[in-house]
Structure formats: structure tokens, C-alpha cells
Amino acid sequence: MIAELKEIFLLYDEELDGKIDGTQIGDVVRAAGLKPTNAMVTKASGTEYKRKGEKRITFEEWMPIYEQLSKEKVQFFHNTFCSLLF
Questions:
Q1: What is the pLDDT of residues 25-70, one digit of tens each?
Q2: Could you give the domains of the chain?
Q3: Alpha carbon 62 to chain centroid distance?
Q4: Cβ neighbourhood burial of 45 (10 Å; 0-12, 13-18, 19+)
Q5: Alpha-carbon distance 75 to 68, whole Å?
Q6: Which InterPro entries does the entry mention (predicted)?
């Protein structure tokens, strides 16, 4: 799974330096199969990257963001399901 995620991550590495632009964090997470909102991505990354070139991040920096968002996805669906029941 990690190798697949890294492969997806590297597809967005435009400068071939092993990093993606901070503005692409959400795009890469979505390409990996999650569907977070922009607000969720900003919360998970701790920063809102508005301008391309502002900061580039490594796969190792991106993985905790992906992991947090994957947990939030489970929580979101659990809360939605429970609200439909009650």
C-alpha cells in the first residue's frame, strides 16, 4: 500500500525532486482514493497553501496528512450513518 501511495505521490512531482507543491496536497490525497474537502485538507496539513511554489513537501511529510484524512473519512461516514438512524 505504501509503495502504491508513493507512486501516486510521485506522479505529481513536477520538479522530479521527490516533493510536491503544497497546493497539490489535496489533489494527491484525492488521487489516492479519499474525498476530503479543502477545509479538511487544510486542517490535516496545518497550513493553507494558496500560492504555487510557497512550499514543497516530501512523501514523508505527506503521509501523516493522508493517514489523518483516512481516519476522518471513517469518522465522517460513521457520524453520517448514525445521524440517519436516529
A1: 999 999 999 999 999 999 999 999 999 999 999 999 999 999 999 9
A2: 2-85 (1.10.238.10)
A3: 7
A4: buried
A5: 11
A6: CALM/Myosin/TropC-like, EF-hand-dom_pair, EF_hand_dom
